[in-house]
Structure formats: structure tokens, C-alpha cells
Design a protein that fits this description.
The complex is a heterodimer of chains A (453) and B (572). By secondary structure, chain A is α/β, with parallel strands linked by helices. Chain A folds into two domains: 263 residues, Rossmann fold (3-Layer(aba) Sandwich), CATH 3.40.50.300; 185 residues, no CATH class. Helix content of chain A is 43%, strand content 19%. With 572 residues, chain B is mainly α. Chain B has two domains: 243 residues, MetI-like (MetI-like fold), CATH 1.10.3720.10; 245 residues, MetI-like fold (Orthogonal Bundle). In chain B, helix 2 crosses helix 9, helix 14 packs antiparallel against helix 18 and helix 18 runs antiparallel to helix 20. The chains are: A alpha/beta (453), B mainly alpha (572).
């Protein structure tokens, strides 16, 4: 059940456009239980509001967006669109893509006209409507350009115009600004909010999927915070500010801080004990499935050194750290969680602080660092313990990587399993804990294992 | 990674996989030695061309056919590592060698037979060797140009930063070639070799029954077996041959093609572009063997050492040339012009003496007919395979199977199926001008399918989602969404298919069943008849006209089309 974390109750304005009831999305797997991407998702969107869906990559928010768009039927639950059960792509819902998804062989004009053409609108009217949309979104004069001639920001404007021209009731935006550079993204955000506030957009509501906390606070009236593994709505917040909003405003900053705190509150910690308990199976999916990000050791070390040095001295406010290091939410959280997993740092209330062990690591020479990491990995990551035990036991100190990947796949998708093992190998190589023979796809112990304890 | 010196090294102990591998190698050696001995025997006077239709002989024939294939492959590799390297390394040589290669690529390979048979039989009078070499040379011509081009292009596109690094470390030209340039070229080279070999099976089957003028030699092999089966109207024998060929291609596909392509992926410089496919079982098996693996590693080490030999000078500041380069260039170009003029004059006088204007016009008209045939077949094949390929390509699972099937079918020599069609034409008294035509594309249509599947499966998913979101359906979907996206792939496929079709014209416009001979009007039939009659000057004229058609078509139609598609219909 989503917790009501914000004090004011949601304003019951507007009519309900879409309602998602107990939605579940799972992919069948051969070996074990299904891989659950979304579970028990309930939400509704009313006319007149911008709703933000905030969560990390891989938390299933894009999947949810596609379910709402009717592009993907949910495995369980249902989507009610304007009072009727949704079957297939709905008229009145337009999608804006992270990758723009413009047809490279069509001009700006033709790209925008595509939706109208599919509706069978007469050419003359089509042209006029498209031109209006192009002008509205600030692309006048670029009608005959091909997408590849435009910059990223302008391409996304085309994507917007194409979505708006069919006059949808609901505009779905899938991380629309994350492929753009900072300045361009800001410019487009402001323009969009301005058009929305002036009621110039031919739409009733917007659902914005994002992993950028400030963006969500800047644009949305309501924010749904998504948790991962499986994706579900963890918190719901009403944003109490009027447009236009000011990032530097004290209240704004505090609101951002609060979301950071919420998002770090229940950090997933691995516990292999759950894995072996058959009755805990449905729980373990969220508990032990720490899919490790593709995070090289030197990034982790760099982060720890930054944290330990002046002026942070081992403790930092996450939003501040994010802006100082120019890191997005998607870079920062995996880093923080990996440090936490290794026992080198703690996350609490939107802050990150180095543990004594972390401090010791930073202050040590390279060889000692290897040793600290060696012990930390064996102590904190059950999979590493398993791997090492198997390798020690084998007479030739070799084992197929496939079997460990299979084991990981019990709790995550094959792609994440591959990535997780790869990250583990990278860390293990730093600590000289074990090595990997890529060609034979085998893990092995290098040289004599007795010179280390 | 060094494995030696480990206490109690258990990895060198032979295992079951080793035993299997050794047995396979020994069996292979025996087969090769036996077949090789046969090559050197004199042409048996009475036994000349005696091919037994008893299926028991077929495995032996299959081995002989396969060996010819590999002999040609070896020759092609030698050619690739000399000609292409020279063309890439020397600017001046490149000015001549590259256009020459372009022309050679357009010459119908089957036409060469006339000249090569006479040449090689003259070289080894009275021995099978001459005929063997002629057949091998034919296969060589079907592989070498394509491979040399791949090598040349790779050598010209070695990333400059790697080139600079090599120079920085003072690698000699020999070291740079083996440490940098060859590894960089391997993916393209392996892929093109495999494509060439697929085409080669067609040639080997065709070239085994060589009839030039009054020399008529049948080399023992699957092709000649089918030839005899046709002569004796033995339909069952043709089925046996097809089955045997299926086994051979299956072995080639599983034992060579897939492991090699998987292995070559290691040399891909742009990482992560291709989806990691599971390793083919042969590669997995090879890696499991202990002794064999060690042996391979040793051989690999030895080869690596050869690559490190410091042959040639270390890089140094460019020395001032004794003669100014401009002057050398002028002399070089003058030399080329003189040669070209002399050749042109010789050709002109020869043509003047041998061909009348009417004859040339007649051959060109025949060329037009064949052109029409090629175009129609490509069109018909496209109408069938484009929708099918898109349907297959849009599902990843279907796409993978379709790709494998198409690769397999492209390697299968289509000429083994020709007799079946001919039997049908003879039986129902069909018009051979029309019904012989589809044979041209029987073998090469798969390139269309293959490329369309590749195009559809790499079509960006978000564009498909956008189309669904905006309710783009039916004809509009084809016109605005799908067809433009696969156009570059289609052009590549159609280009390959039509190129193959020209070549196949010589083999398909004339066909026989027993003593019934069917013939269609066209340039291919003209060359085929002239070959049988041993009329060298007519074959020459036919080949020149066909090469001109192909060149013109490539320059005037395919190249502009593919440039246009590359500008307008590619993603990002």
C-alpha cells in the first residue's frame, strides 16, 4: 500500500482519466519462479495534473508506462481508461520517448503529421494542424528539416509536437529529458511547464517518468516514488508549490531533501539466509536480489576518497554531493548502495557517511586496500563466499561462470545476472580474490592461494 | 595466461574429448591422403569420366569435392594476403590494382572455365592434375575477389590512433602487419570468406563436369555424379546427391562456419555492438579438450612469435626521396597510360579481326534479355521474401532460426536442384524461356531473405512502439514505418542476389535431361554454347559484354541507390 508521506491530502480535482488496479507484470522463466517486474501497482491520474513517476532505472516504471499506453498487456490486474477496460493502444494517449523515436526518413512536418495521417485526416487539415503544433512547441521554420539535422533538444520538441498534434487527453513522457544535456533539458522543461501553466497545451494531464528528483519536484503536482524489485508505488507526495517554481527556494530544497531521505530509507541489503528458505521465496525477490550496477572499483575508490577528503570529512548530504560531482540519481544511488553493501558507508536520511572500515580503506596503501576489500567481499557478499568456496574445493581451482550466473538468475533477469557477475569479477580482480578466463567462461584462482589469508 | 609450472598440473591429462578429437583428425588425414593420391594419377584412358551412380561411392565423391573447395580457399587466402596488401600499402599500385579488382569481380566466373581448362591441361598434359587445377581455379575466382576486397578495405580503415600507437612502440612493418592490421581485418575477412565459400559450393559442383570443345573430363565429385545422373535420367541418384550435399553443408556449417564466425567476434573493435550468441558446440568441445587445446595454444604461440619477428626497418623520420615524388607520379601515370593505350589498341585490332558489328549488337541484345530476366526474378523474389523476412525478423526467436536457415540455404549449391525443375519442364512441355528463369535466383534469393531478416530484427523497437501508439496501421505502416527502415538492407541483399544471378545465367539458361537439351534465349546461353563448342573468341565477347552489363548496372543503379539509402534510410 502506498504510504501517504505528504501532509496535505490529494486535491480531488478533475475527473479520473486512468486507473490502474493491482497491476502485475512478470516474465516467465524456465528454471524457477517468474521474474516479477511490477507487483500490486495501484494508481490513478485525474485531469488537470502532472504526475511524476520517480524511481531508479530498472524499477519497472517504463514498463508501467507502456502498460498504460496499451502497448503491453499486464500479466495481472487491469487498466481502466475513461471508465473502460483498456485493450490495446488507446486513442487519446500519446507517448513521448526518451530516445525521441522519430522516423529518420520523414521531415519534421511529416513526422508530426504521422498520427493524423493514421487517423485519416485530410491532407490540407493535417498540414495546418501540424504547423500549429510545430509553432506552439517553438519549432517554426524547421518544418522541412530531417531529424538528423536537428540537435537533441529540437528533436525532442518534434517528439512533443508529434504527441500533441493528435490532441491526446493524457500525455505519457518516458524520461523525456534524460538524453539531453543539462542546459537544453532545463530550457525544454521550463518551456513545457510554461505552456502547461498557461493552458496552451491541448491535453488534460501528463504522466512523467523520471529518475531526476529535482525535475520531478520542478514539474509535477503529485509524485509517486517507485521502489525496485518488484516495482511498486512506495510513497505518494503532493507537491505544494505553484508554477513557476524556483530551485533555489528554501522550501523547494527541503522538499528535494525529503525525497532523498525517503528513497534511502529502505535500502535493499543482501541476505542469503532468505535465499535458502523456500517459504520466503516471494520475499527474497526483493531481499537478496541485489543486482549490482556496472560499477568499476576505481569509481568506488574515487567516491570514497572524495567523501573522506576536505570539506566533507566522511559525511555528505546526497543532493549536495550529487550536484558537486555532477552525478544523476542513477549514478549516485548505485554508488552509495554498493558502498553500503561492502560495509564502507551508510546511507541514512538523505546523507551518506563513511564507516570506520571505509575510512581505514581510504587511508591505506594499495596492498592493504586489496586486503580490506578481500575481507569485506567475503564477509558481506554471499555470492562471493560461494564462488570462493567452490574454487578452493576444486583440485584445478576452476569453475564455470555459467553456474553462478544461473544461481543469480533465480532472483534477477539474465541481463542483470550477467552484469552483476561481471561487476563482482571486477571487484574480485582488484582484491585478487579470484580471476576470470573470459574465453573459457571460467572463474579461477590465480597462482598459489596460500600467500593470502 | 600461463598455465605451466603449476604443481600437479592436471590440465594436460587427455580426456574423452581429446580422444574424439584425435580420432577425427586421424580419419581426416587418411581421407585427405587418399584423395590426394588420386589427383596425381594420369587421366585413365578407358575409365575417363567413369562415375558410378552407386550411392556407396557418394561419400568418397563428397570428400573430393570438399577438398577442391579447401584447396581453392588456400589459394584465395594467399591471393588476399598478397594482392590486397600490396594494393593497400602502395598508393601507386593501388591506383591500378583496385579498379582491376572491381572489374574482375564483375566478370562472370563460369566464363573463365574455357580459358583455364585449356591453360591448365596444357600445363599438365595427360594428368588429372590439370583438370583438378582448372576446377580449383574456378572456385578460386568465385572467392578471391570478395576476400581481397574485404582485406583491402580493412587495411585502409585501421584506426589512426592504433596506427600511431604501433609507430610509437617502434613496430616494424612486419610486426605491425601481424599485430595490428591482420587482427583488425579478421572479422571482415572471416565473414567474407564464409560468404565466398557459400558461393563456392555452386562453382565446385558446376566445374566438375568440364566440357570445353573436344576435351571432356569428369572429375570425381558430387557435381560429376549429378552430371552422369542427368545423362542417364536417373532421378533417384539426383536425390542421393542432394542428400549427400546436405550432409556436407551441414558439416561445413557446424564444424567451420559457426565456430570461425564466433571466434572472429573476439577481434571486433567496437564492443557490445553485437549480441553475444552462445558459443557453437564445436568451439565448446575444442575448449574442453586438454591435449588438443594445449597443442593449439602451442601452435598459436609459435605463430605469434613469427608475428613478432623484427622484419623490416623500424619507423623513422621519412627520408628525403632521391627523386621528387611528383616526378615519380608523373612517370607512373605515363606508364599506366602507355600500357592502357597498348592494351586498348590490341583489343581493338583483335576485335576488328574477329567480331562484326552485327555480332556485337546481337550479343548485346542477348545481354538485354538476360538483364530483363535478372530484374524480373529479383522483383518476384523480393515480393515474396520482403514480407516474409519482415515477419520473421520482427520476432527475435524466429529471426535467429531464419538467419541460420538462410545462411544454410545460401551455401547449398542450387544447381543440384536444377534437374528436378528440368524434369518438370520436359514432362509438361513448358516454355523454357520462362521456366528456366527462376533457376537463376534459386541459390541467391536467400541473400534477400537474409538481409531483410537482419534489417527487420535490428529495427528500433521504440519506432515500432511509436507507430503503434499513433495507430499507424496497414499500408501506411508499410510505407512510412517499415519499408524505408529496411531499404538499405534490401539493397544490399538485392545487389548480392542479382550479382549471383548473372553468374548463374551461364549455368541455368542451358539445361539438359538425358539427351533433351533445353535452352533459353540470353547471354548466359550464348556463353554456355560457345564454351561447349570451344569457341574462345565468342566466349571472350560474351564475357566482356556481361562484365560491362554488370559494371554498368553497379555503377549506374546499385551504387547510387545504396548511397541514397545510406543517406536517408539509416538510423542515427
Amino acid at each position: 500500500m502506498p504510504q501517504q508521506a505528504a501532509s496535505p491530502s490529494p486535491k480531488q480535482t478533475g475527473t479520473e482519466l486512468v486507473r490502474i488496479v493491482n497491476c502485475r507484470q512478470a516474465y516467465p522463466k524456465e528454471s524457477s519462479t517468474d521474474l516479477v517486474v511490477l507487483d500490486g501497482v495501484n494508481l490513478s491520474i485525474r485531469s488537470g495534473e502532472i504526475v511524476g513517476l520517480l524511481g531508479r532505472s530498472g524499477s519497472g516504471k517504463s514498463t508501467l508506462l507502456r502498460i498504460i499506453a496499451g502497448l503491453l498487456p499486464p500479466t495481472g490486474g487491469e487498466v481502466i481508461w475513461k471508465g473502460k477496460r483498456l485493450e490495446g493502444p488507446a486513442a487519446g494517449i500519446s507517448l513521448v520517448f526518451q530516445s525521441f523515436a522519430l522516423f529518420p526518413w520523414l521531415t519534421v512536418q511529416k513526422n508530426v503529421e504521422l498520427g493524423l495521417e493514421a487517423q485519416g485526416v485530410a491532407p490540407a487539415e493535417r498540414e495546418k494542424l501540424a504547423e500549429d503544433a510545430i509553432h506552439l512547441i517553438g519549432l517554426g521554420g524547421y518544418e522541412n528539416a530531417y531529424p538528423k539535422e536537428l540537435s537533441g533538444g529540437m528533436r525532442q520538441r518534434v517528439g512533443l509536437a508529434r504527441a500533441l498534434v493528435v490532441r491526446p487527453d493524457l500525455l505519457l513522457m518516458d524520461e523525456p529529458f534524460s538524453a539531453l544535456d543539462v542546459l537544453t533539458a532545463e530550457n525544454l522543461r521550463t518551456d513545457l511547464v510554461e505552456l502547461w501553466a498557461e493552458k496552451k497545451l491541448p491535453i488534460q494531464s501528463i504522466l512523467l517518468v523520471t529518475h531526476n528528483i529535482e525535475e520531478a519536484v520542478l514539474m509535477c503536482d503529485r509524485i509517486l516514488i517507485f521502489s525496485s524489485n518488484p516495482g511498486r508505488v512506495a510513497y505518494e507526495l503532493q507537491v505544494p508549490f505553484e508554477h513557476p517554481r524556483n530551485r533555489e527556494d528554501m522550501a523547494f530544497r527541503q522538499f528535494v531533501d525529503r525525497i532523498y531521505a525517503l528513497m534511502t530509507r529502505r535500502a535493499p541489503v543482501v541476505s542469503e539466509a532468505d535465499m535458502t528458505d523456500p517459504d520466503m521465496r516471494h520475499v527474497q525477490i526483493s531481499a537478496d536480489a541485489v543486482a549490482l550496477p556496472a560499477l568499476p572499483m576505481n569509481t568506488i575508490v574515487g567516491m570514497m576518497e572524495t567523501l573522506a577528503a576536505d570539506p566533507l570529512h566522511g559525511r555528505a548530504d546526497l543532493p549536495l554531493l550529487a550536484s558537486r560531482l555532477q552525478l544523476e540519481l542513477d549514478d549516485l544511488f548505485p554508488l552509495g548502495e554498493s558502498l553500503q553493501l561492502l560495509g564502507f558507508a551508510e546511507l541514512e536520511d538523505g546523507d551518506i557517511l563513511l564507516t570506520p572500515e571505509g575510512m581505514r580503506f581510504v587511508q591505506s596503501e594499495h596492498d592493504i586496500r586489496k586486503h580490506i576489500l578481500w575481507q569485506s567481499m567475503l564477509h558481506n557478499i554471499p555470492m562471493v563466499r560461494t564462488i570462493r568456496a567452490v574454487l578452493d574445493e576444486r583440485p584445478n581451482h576452476r569453475a564455470s561462470a555459467e553456474r553462478f550466473r544461473d544461481e543469480l538468475e533465480d532472483s534477477m533477469s539474465p541481463n542483470y545476472a550477467r552484469q552483476t557477475l561481471q561487476t563482482l569479477i571486477g571487484w574480485a580482480r582488484y582484491a585478487e580474490l579470484f580471476d576470470f578466463d573470459e574465453e573459457a567462461d571460467q572463474l579461477f584462482l590465480d597462482d598459489d592461494p596460500t600467500d593470502r589469508s | 595466461m600461463s598455465t605451466g609450472g603449476q604443481p600437479g598440473n592436471l590440465r594436460a591429462r587427455p580426456n574423452l574429448a581429446d580422444l574424439l578429437g584425435l580420432l577425427a583428425i586421424m580419419a581426416g588425414a587418411v581421407v585427405v591422403a587418399t584423395a590426394g593420391r588420386h589427383m596425381l594419377v594420369p587421366i585413365p584412358a578407358s575409365e575417363a569420366g567413369t562415375i558410378h551412380l552407386n550411392p556407396a561411392y557418394l561419400p568418397g565423391y563428397a570428400v573430393r569435392t570438399t577438398l577442391r573447395m579447401f584447396a581453392a580457399l588456400a589459394a584465395s587466402l594467399v591471393f588476399t594476403f598478397t594482392y590486397a596488401v600490396w594494393a593497400a600499402k602502395s598508393r601507386r599500385a593501388g591506383q591500378v590494382l583496385v579498379p582491376l579488382l572491381d572489374i574482375l569481380q564483375s566478370v562472370p566466373i563460369l566464363g573463365f572455365l574455357t580459358f583455364t581448362v585449356i591453360f591448365f591441361l596444357g600445363l599438365f598434359p595427360g594428368r588429372m592434375m590439370g583438370a583438378e587445377l582448372a576446377a580449383i581455379f574456378t572456385i578460386f575466382t568465385s572467392q578471391a575477389w570478395n576476400m581481397a576486397f574485404a582485406m583491402y578495405q580493412s587495411l585502409r580503415t585501421v584506426p589512426p590512433d592504433l596506427e600511431e600507437a604501433a609507430r610509437c612502440f617502434g613496430l616494424t612493418p612486419w610486426q605491425r602487419f601481424w599485430r595490428l592490421e591482420v587482427p583488425f581485418a579478421i572479422p571482415a575477412l572471416v565473414w567474407n570468406t564464409m560468404i565466398s565459400m557459400s558461393g563456392g559450393w555452386f562453382m565446385v559442383v558446376y566445374s566438375e563436369t568440364i566440357t570445353v570443345g573436344n576435351t571432356d573430363i569428369a572429375l570425381p565429385g558430387i557435381g560429376s555424379y549429378v552430371g552422369v545422373a542427368i545423362e542417364q535420367r536417373n532421378l533417384a541418384a539426383i536425390f542421393y546427391a542432394i542428400l549427400t550435399m546436405l550432409a556436407v553443408i551441414l558439416a561445413y556449417d557446424q564444424l567451420l562456419f559457426r565456430p570461425l564466425v564466433a571466434w572472429s567476434a573476439r577481434f571486433q573493435t567496437d564492443d557490445g555492438a553485437t549480441l553475444a550468441a552462445p558459443d557453437p558446440w564445436v568451439l565448446v568441445l575444442l575448449r574442453r579438450t586438454h591435449l588438443l587445446r594445449r597443442f593449439c595454444l602451442r601452435v598459436g604461440d609459435g605463430l605469434t612469435r613469427i608475428g613478432w619477428l623484427a622484419l623490416g626497418p623500424r619507423p623513422s623520420a621519412p627520408a628525403r626521396a632521391l627523386i621528387p615524388p611528383r616526378l615519380m607520379d608523373a612517370a607512373w601515370i605515363a606508364g599506366i597510360v602507355v600500357c592502357a593505350l597498348t592494351l586498348g589498341w590490341k583489343t581493338w585490332t583483335f576485335s576488328h579481326a574477329h567480331y562484326s558489328a552485327g555480332q556485337v549488337l546481337h550479343v548485346m541484345a542477348l545481354g538485354g534479355l538476360t538483364l530483363l530476366r535478372v530484374m524480373i526474378t529479383v522483383l518476384v523474389a523480393s515480393v515474396i521474401w520482403v514480407p516474409a523476412g519482415i515477419w520473421l525478423g520482427l520476432s527475435p526467436r524466429r529471426a535467429r532460426h531464419a538467419q541460420m536457415a538462410a545462411q544454410f540455404m545460401a551455401a547449398f549449391p542450387a544447381n543440384l536442384f536444377f534437374p528436378l525443375v528440368v524434369v518438370a519442364i520436359v514432362h509438361w512441355h513448358l516454355n523454357s524461356n520462362i521456366w528456366l528463369t527462376p533457376l537463376m535466383l534459386l541459390g541467391t534469393q536467400w541473400y534477400i531473405l537474409f538481409n531483410i531478416v537482419a534489417g527487420a530484427s535490428s529495427y528500433p523497437g521504440d519506432l515500432l512502439e511509436a507507430a503503434r501508439n499513433f495507430h499507424v496501421r496497414g499500408w501506411l505502416w508499410w510505407r512510412r514505418v517499415m519499408l524505408p527502415g529496411i531499404t538499405p538492407y534490401f539493397i544490399t541483399g538485392a545487389l548480392t542476389a542479382s550479382g549471383g544471378a548473372w553468374n548463374a545465367a551461364i549455368a541455368t539458361e542451358v539445361a539438359s535431361w538425358g539427351d533433351t537439351t533445353l535452352s533459353a534465349q540470353g547471354l548466359g546461353a550464348y556463353i554456355a554454347h560457345a564454351t561447349v563448342a570451344g569457341a574462345t573468341d565468342q566466349v571472350g565477347l560474351g564475357m566482356a559484354v556481361m562484365a560491362a552489363f554488370v559494371l554498368l548496372l553497379n555503377r549506374a543503379v546499385w551504387r547510387p541507390l545504396s548511397n541514397y539509402a545510406a543517406r536517408h534510410y539509416t538510423f542515427d
